[in-house]
Amino acid sequence: KAGVTQTPRYLIKTRGQQVTLSCSPISGHRSVSWYQQTPGQGLQFLFEYFSETQRNKGNFPGRFSGRQFSNSRSEMNVSTLELGDSALYLCASSQLAEGNEQFFGPGTRLTVL
Amino acid sequence: SQELEQSPQSLIVQEGKNLTINCTSSKTLYGLYWYKQKYGEGLIFLMMLQKGGEEKSHEKITAKLDEKKQQSSLHITASQPSHAGIYLCGADESFRGGTSYGKLTFGQGTILTVHP
């Protein structure tokens, strides 16, 4: 079975731009969670989607949004980029509705200049 | 929400030595994950613990969850350079019900260096 894939792997943007990151979960997994990892804050939960519905959201501004498609693939969008948005963005997929192992993708490294 | 504290923050050992990483929670742990991360890459799932007193092993890595379910430890026997990386513990918030779906709260990580 193929693992979680994320595209692109690396991205460089300038302040004020917007960006869209993509995540394809493991086949059969319906839950997709997104995380932001920075040296200062560590790994922080952004949001979770299941069956195209956002069920949970972390403490991030409204510039961070996401969606999930009927095939469980998910995208996250960050609008009006700030320097502090530079981070490794990770998505994870899980098979069951709750309480199951999350498997992570390789991440997208976003650099905001 | 839950807070996890890992110790030590970093660890340097000689190849062949045993080591232990601890993860302490401010609340009862209902689902505790251990992951390994190479710098700048994704997280590799190691083990998940749910029951008090539970212990799981994979190759030379053993993870335990204490009876009170507030502390977990990860033990590596006869460390190798391939064990080097960042080890992260994560608490599964979804076990608490409510709307905590799909959320793991992570410790700050332990950086392991293994010298050959």
Low-confidence stretches of chain A: none
Which percent band covers the strand fraction of chain A? over 45%
What's the main sheet of chain B like? Answer: 6 strands, mixed
Give the ordered list of helices and strands of chain B. Answer: EEEEEEEEEEE
Separate helix tally of chain B: 0
List the secondary-structure elements of chain A in sequence, H or E.
EEEEEEEEEEE
Rg value of chain B: 14 Å
Spatial separation of the terminal alpha carbons of chain A? 37 Å
Describe the sheet with the most strands of chain A.
7 strands, mixed
Shape of chain B: globular
Q: Level of helix content of chain B?
A: under 10%
Give a brief rundown of this model.
With 113 residues, chain A is mostly beta strands. Chain A has no helices and eleven strands.
Task: Write up this protein.
The complex is a heterodimer of chains A (113) and B (116). With 113 residues, chain A is mostly beta strands. Chain A has no helices and 11 strands. Chain A has strands at residues 5-7, 10-13, 19-24, 31-38, 42-50, 53-57, 64-68, 74-78, 87-94, 103-104, 108-112. In chain A, the strands form 2 sheets. In chain A, strands 2, 4, 5, 6, 9, 10 and 11 form a 7-stranded mixed beta sheet that branches. In chain A, strand 9 (87-94) and strand 10 form a beta hairpin. The N and C termini of chain A lie far apart (37 Å). The model of chain A has no long low-confidence stretch (mean pLDDT 93). With 116 residues, chain B is mainly beta. Chain B contains no helices and 11 strands. Chain B has strands spanning 4-7, 10-14, 19-25, 32-37, 43-49, 55-58, 61-65, 71-76, 85-92, 104-106, 110-115. In chain B, the strands form 2 sheets. In chain B, strands 2, 4, 5, 9, 10 and 11 form a 6-stranded mixed beta sheet that branches. In chain B, strands 1-3-8-7-6 form a 5-stranded antiparallel beta sheet, with no helix packed on it. In chain B, strand 6 (55-58) and strand 7 form a beta hairpin. The model of chain B has no long low-confidence stretch (mean pLDDT 91).
